[in-house]
Recover the amino acids of this structure.
């Protein structure tokens, strides 16, 4: 890292000096009340809000800066009053905040043209619509022109300030972009910054970055070929660029700090089978490794031919404890998406949404997190209604599957009357939206909805216990089991002990258990097959959970995997929280056994390794082998964590959630929760030293 | 067929030999190193191990019918928190081979294999020989104290592809004081590996004030300087958590050295003798 980047990091990230220039928070309903009073259309509201924020912004440049634009406006106002929102919610399906979010726009649609050219196109289209007597469409294009004008206006203010302050680099970039298409790597980064910045100003959120190494590489290559840049100063620019994602992120909407969807996707197979991983992909990994910042979140697309050295670079990044890269397997994801109806070219171009859902840049208004199936709800219902009358295990299993079917169907049916706020600026970067003057909020080429699935491992482990102890060994009667569950295993310590700690678990590489998982997953995806959503799209089944795993575990009775009433479910596609598993090899073998192509909405196997496993370069390379092995076995997506201090502190408070947390101590490994507090403290203390 | 006692089979070991490995812990050890971090591996017999976190529900007491613990395991299955286990499982060599073969292809595919450690794996020499012979196509490594007779040492190591052996102290008297045994047999066995065709590494647990002296390093380095089959020396600095498991098997940890003193790590001495070293 250069001294300049260190200074910028210190300034923006450590000291947060730029927070001082922020305007104080304002009444979020200030605009909404005016809009309500004059009964403005939704498009007008969305447009007015965006230009309101853009106009309220004033340029600020910091010492040493080469990539400008920082937020000073703290509050992005609402476009509807609370009363209006209540009415809207009563009549519509409002997804999260209501704004377009969690899609991946095609930044090249503006990067390649520049604003001036785009304005010309838009005015031509407006004129054409006018001739065709389609005033509404003409207005839509004119609104888009006006948005570009306001962004350009702010950029011009920045340029003037740069000239005034003698910041030649920024002044020069801004004399080119955003009006003209960028020529250099630096100009392209500056232009991207302006586009991304403007998206947040319109309250669009989870604004993903997508396949940055693909659409930005031509600029880098041109500069390098021309001798304007070498790897070293390209890395420096990239690091400054990465810092920009961390400047304003505390102002972005999200469940918690860091949940802002700034995910970037590196590498991936081209339609002709070649690998798109390039020098910029590598530089992105290096920049992230050096900066150690939570944004952008790195996703690495890999496939059979990906060399171990790429995984090793990834493992080096995992070692930092930030929880990325997240890996996705093209050999599974691409055919899976094609099975869902995505064209080969689009499937090969997939990116990753805010968390892990697979989405198509520029061509999809998919909502991949619109709801979630609860596998334990399906289980519970079968336990109460069908266990006693199920003569055979198969009968019981089919009752669970029947419930999955019912739940999945009713989920599909529940999604009616979806309404999303217009996003005229984002629409400029979506295929067809501009040409047809159709806002992206109304749909795109792909309009598919995706569901998560919570409690899979809990349901699978429970069914496995029932198969083994109730139907096969007849260790307990059905009535005994139901009573024990009903009473939360009180007075049945031996039963709790057996079910919780010693029963067959998903993640222990037991074929019969993993086949139950495959069965449930397939029931889910097969049910969705052929169902259409109200936008003409399909429904996609996934293996993620998002926050639903918390919501779906509340108030749920004890389950036959030994989970007590109210206790948690695993996050994402992961083992249950209680059974002591054999280890990571059994986990990757278990979790790669189901055919994951069929449930390809997204949702990673999440593995935790103690960061002492990353102690040497050699051992870090071995972690890369573990990741590669999951993919070799047919895994779809993996997220690996080097477990850090915070996690261990939590493990001290809630040991029951960390039964598989392994710590490497001194030439040996042990289960963290088995160590006496004193020893746990030692390790935590050592982590502090390492950090 | 021989039967042995295994106290753990660990998956995905990254510090136990080339590439990724499964590591088998065999129970029982003739040494009593004062800093031993695996006290549950010392006794040959299975024994009860109780983890922390007890909320005193009393279930274990209710099922117990003995005056003092005979490690019968009756209390294991009634603990609602799963804190109790019998550490050490009797298995035939065939059972262990079958267990290892569940994942052996996985490790082989990535250039790894299986590692036997303990306790002291040589203590179950006959059993171990059968197990090693039962794994013909697998890369096999052993981690040993080398405290065994030369013929056992030869027969076992001859069946492996990679050897990790400890030198805890070069001075026989000090060695005996801290481990309970003399080191002559150990050094002789190690010397027998010098010109062999099996690659080996020497591991030194660095114990503050016990063996982290320049003199000891110098002696070890000089001794090893002639070893052509030696890959490297691995230095493993002592950590206070070594005593973590004593309480769980009803024993007390009584280090005879100052656990708070930082250890002297010196890779330079090994470098001077042309020996690669690494700190683990």
């Amino acid at each position: 890292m250069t001294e300049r980047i260190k200074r910028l990091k210190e300034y923006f990230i450590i000291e947060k000096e730029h927070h001082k220039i922020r305007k104080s928070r304002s009444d979020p309903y200030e605009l909404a009340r005016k809009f309500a009073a004059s009964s403005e259309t939704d498009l007008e509201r969305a447009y007015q809000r965006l230009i309101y924020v853009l106009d309220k912004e004033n340029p600020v440049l910091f010492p040493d800066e080469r990539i400008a634009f920082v937020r000073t406006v703290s509050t992005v106002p609402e476009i509807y009053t609370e009363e209006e929102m209540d009415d809207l919610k009563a009549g519509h399906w409002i997804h999260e905040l209501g704004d377009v979010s969690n899609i991946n726009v095609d930044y090249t649609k503006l990067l390649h043209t520049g604003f001036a050219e785009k304005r010309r196109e838009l005015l031509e289209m407006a004129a054409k619509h006018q001739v065709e007597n389609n005033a509404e469409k003409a207005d839509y294009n004119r609104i888009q022109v006006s948005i570009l004008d306001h962004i350009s206006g702010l950029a011009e203010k920045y340029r003037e300030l740069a000239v005034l302050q003698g910041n030649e680099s920024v002044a020069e970039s801004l004399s080119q972009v955003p009006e003209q298409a960028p020529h250099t790597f630096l100009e392209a980064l500056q232009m991207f910054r302006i586009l991304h910045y403007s998206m947040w100003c319109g309250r669009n959120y989870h604004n993903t970055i997508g396949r940055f190494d693909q659409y930005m590489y031509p600029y880098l290559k041109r500069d390098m070929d021309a001798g304007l840049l070498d790897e070293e100063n390209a890395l420096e620019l990239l690091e400054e660029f990465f810092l920009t994602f961390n400047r304003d992120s505390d102002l972005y909407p999200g469940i918690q700090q860091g949940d802002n969807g700034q995910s970037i996707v590196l590498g991936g197979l081209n339609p002709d089978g070649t690998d798109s991983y390039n020098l910029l992909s590598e530089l992105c990994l290096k920049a992230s490794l050096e900066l150690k910042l939570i944004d952008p979140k790195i996703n690495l697309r890999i496939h059979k031919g990906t060399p171990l050295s790429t995984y090793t670079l990834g493992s080096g990044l995992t070692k930092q404890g930030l929880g990325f890269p997240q890996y996705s397997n093209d050999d599974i994801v691409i055919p899976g998406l094609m099975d869902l109806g995505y064209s080969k070219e689009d499937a090969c171009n997939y990116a990753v949404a805010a968390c892990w859902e697979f989405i198509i840049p520029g061509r999809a208004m998919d909502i991949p997190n619109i709801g979630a199936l609860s596998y334990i709800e399906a289980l519970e219902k079968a336990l109460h209604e069908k266990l006693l009358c199920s003569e055979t295990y198969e009968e019981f299993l089919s009752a669970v599957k029947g419930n999955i079917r019912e739940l999945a169907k009713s989920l599909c049916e529940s999604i009616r009357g979806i309404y999303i706020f217009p996003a005229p600026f984002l629409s400029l970067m979506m295929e067809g939206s501009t040409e047809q003057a159709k806002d992206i909020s109304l749909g795109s080429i792909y309009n598919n909805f995706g569901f998560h699935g919570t409690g899979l491992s809990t349901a699978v482990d429970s069914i496995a216990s029932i198969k083994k102890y109730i139907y096969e060994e007849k260790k307990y009667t059905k009535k005994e089991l139901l009573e024990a569950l009903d009473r939360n295993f009180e007075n049945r310590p031996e039963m709790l002990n057996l079910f919780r700690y010693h029963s067959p678990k998903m993640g222990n590489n037991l074929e019969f258990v993993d086949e139950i998982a495959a069965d449930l997953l397939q029931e889910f995806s097969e049910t969705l097959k052929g169902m259409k959503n109200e936008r003409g799209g399909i429904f996609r089944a996934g293996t993620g959970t998002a926050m639903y795993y918390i919501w779906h575990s509340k108030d749920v009775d004890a389950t036959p995997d030994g989970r007590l009433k109210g206790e948690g479910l695993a996050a994402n596609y992961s083992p249950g929280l209680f059974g002591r598993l054999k280890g990571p090899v059994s986990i990757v073998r278990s979790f790669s056994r189901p055919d994951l192509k069929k449930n390809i909405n997204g949702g990673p196997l999440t593995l935790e390794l103690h960061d002492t496993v990353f102690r040497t370069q050699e051992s870090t390379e071995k972690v890369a082998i573990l990741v590669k092995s999951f993919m070799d076995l047919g895994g779809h997506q993996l997220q690996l964590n080097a477990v850090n201090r915070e996690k261990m502190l939590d493990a001290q408070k809630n040991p029951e959630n960390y039964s598989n947390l392994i710590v490497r101590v001194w030439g040996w490994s042990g289960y963290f929760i088995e160590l006496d507090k004193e020893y746990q403290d030692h390790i935590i203390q050592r982590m502090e030293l390492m950090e | 067929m021989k039967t042995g006692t295994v106290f753990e089979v660990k998956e995905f070991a990254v510090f136990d030999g080339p590439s990724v490995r499964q590591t088998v812990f065999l129970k029982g050890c003739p040494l009593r190193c004062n800093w031993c971090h695996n006290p549950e591996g010392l006794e040959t017999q299975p024994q009860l191990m109780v983890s922390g976190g007890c909320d005193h529900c009393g279930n274990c007491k209710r099922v117990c019918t003995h005056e003092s613990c005979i490690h019968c395991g009756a209390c294991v299955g009634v603990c609602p928190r799963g804190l109790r286990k019998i550490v050490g499982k009797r298995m035939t060599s065939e059972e262990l081979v079958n267990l290892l073969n569940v994942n052996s292809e996985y490790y082989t595919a990535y250039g790894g294999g299986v590692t036997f450690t303990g306790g002291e794996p040589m203590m179950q020499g006959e059993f171990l020989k059968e197990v090693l012979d039962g794994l013909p196509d697998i890369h096999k490594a052993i981690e040993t104290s080398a405290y065994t007779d030369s013929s056992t040492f030869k027969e076992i190591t001859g069946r492996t592809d990679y050897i990790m052996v400890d030198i805890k102290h070069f001075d026989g008297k000090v060695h005996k004081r801290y481990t309970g045994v003399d080191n002559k047999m150990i050094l002789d066995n190690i010397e027998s590996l010098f010109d062999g065709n099996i690659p080996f590494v020497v591991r030194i647990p660095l114990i503050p004030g016990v063996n982290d002296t320049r003199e000891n390093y110098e002696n070890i380095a000089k001794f090893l300087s002639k070893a052509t089959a030696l890959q490297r020396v691995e230095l493993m600095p002592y950590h206070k958590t070594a005593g973590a498991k004593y309480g769980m098997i009803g024993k007390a940890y009584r280090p005879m050295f100052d656990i708070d003193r930082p250890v002297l790590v010196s890779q330079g001495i090994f470098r001077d003798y042309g020996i690669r070293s690494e700190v683990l």
Remarks:
- Chain A has 28 helices and twelve strands.
- Chain A has a mean pLDDT of 93.
